[in-house]
Amino acid sequence: MSKRKNSRIIACISSKGGVGKTTSSINLAAAINFFNKSVTIVDANLTTPDLGVYLGVPIVPITLHDVLRGKNDITEAIYLHKSGMRVIPASISLQDAKRTQSEKLSSVIEKLNGTTEFIIIDCPPGLGKEAILTLKAADEVLIITNPEMPSVTNALKSVKLCQEMKKEILGIVVTKTNAKNVDMPINDIQDILEIPVIEIIPEDRAIKFSQAKKDAVIHTHPESASAVQYKRLAAELIGINYNQELPKQDNVFEFILKWFGFKGG
Predict the structure, then answer these.
(1) Which CATH number does the domain housing residue 236 bear?
(2) Which domain holds residue 102?
(3) If I label 216, which of 12, 35, 205, 252 is the partner at 20 to 30 A Cα–Cα?
C-alpha cells in the first residue's frame, strides 16, 4: 500500500548546531501560515529541544516525549499558536530525554499526515540516530547552513545522508549572512554542496528582538529583511508569487541578493 501524501512533510536539518535551524523552522512555519496554508511544526530534537522555549511555552502538559512513551496520542500534544499555526513541543526535562523511545518517532509523525497542508519538522542537529529517525518521517528536506566553511562542510554530510536515504532536497537555506563579514560566496557554497541555494537569510537584529518576545520574526517584525526572506522562502515552496520589498535600510542586502541572482521585491 502506498503512503498517503496529503501533507507535505518537510524536515529542516543541519549537521552542526547554532546555524539557525530552529529559528528557520519556526519562521518558515509562520510564513506558510501567513499565506493561509495550514501548518504544524514539530520539535523532533528530543535531547535538546528549543521550540517551546523560543515560543514562550517551555513547559506544557503533554509533549512529544509523552506521545513517544505511549502515554498520549499525538493529537493531544498539538497546541494552537495565536497566529493559527499548530505546534508540537518536546520536553525540556533531562529525565524525559533519557526515557524516550525515539524508534517510534517516524510512525508518530506519520499519524499527522493529512491533518494540515504542511508539516515542518525541526530536526536534531548532527547525523546521529535521532536525526536519521526524523528524516525517515519526512518526504522533503531543507538544509540549513551558515556561509562559513565549517558549517558548509558539515552541510555536505547532511546532503550525502539525505541522498543515501533518497529524500528530496528542496535546496539550501543560508542563514546569518552579513555584508560586513567575510562570508563564503554563494556560488562556492553551491559548488561544494552541488545543491542550489534557494534563499539567503540576513543576520538581522529583528530576529534577536523576536526571540526576546518569544515569537516568530514574521509576527513581531513583519517588514524586516529576515521576515521578508522567510516569506519569500515559503512562497517558493508553496508555489506562489510574493513581491514584498526589503526595507530601504537593507539596500546592501538587496544588492547582494541581486548579485547572486535572487529575485528582489
Answers:
(1) 3.40.50.300
(2) 8-259
(3) 252
Domain count, the chain: 1
Does some domain include residue 33?
Answer: yes
In this structure, are residues 190 and 164 in contact, taking their beta carbons and an 8 Å threshold?
no
Residue 253 has a pLDDT of 61
- Predicted structure pTM score: 0.91
Residue 93: inside a domain, yes or no? yes
Q: In what order do the strands lie in the sheet with 197-202?
A: 79-80, 86-88, 39-43, 118-122, 8-13, 140-145, 168-177, 197-202
Mean pLDDT per 10-residue section of the chain, whose length is 265 residues: 71 91 98 98 94 94 95 96 97 85 88 96 90 92 96 95 96 91 90 96 95 97 96 97 78 56 53
Which backbone phi and psi does 232 adopt, to 5 degrees?
-65, -40
Domain-embedded: residue 1: no
Residue type, 61: P
CA dihedral 136→29→17→101, nearest 10 degrees, is: -40
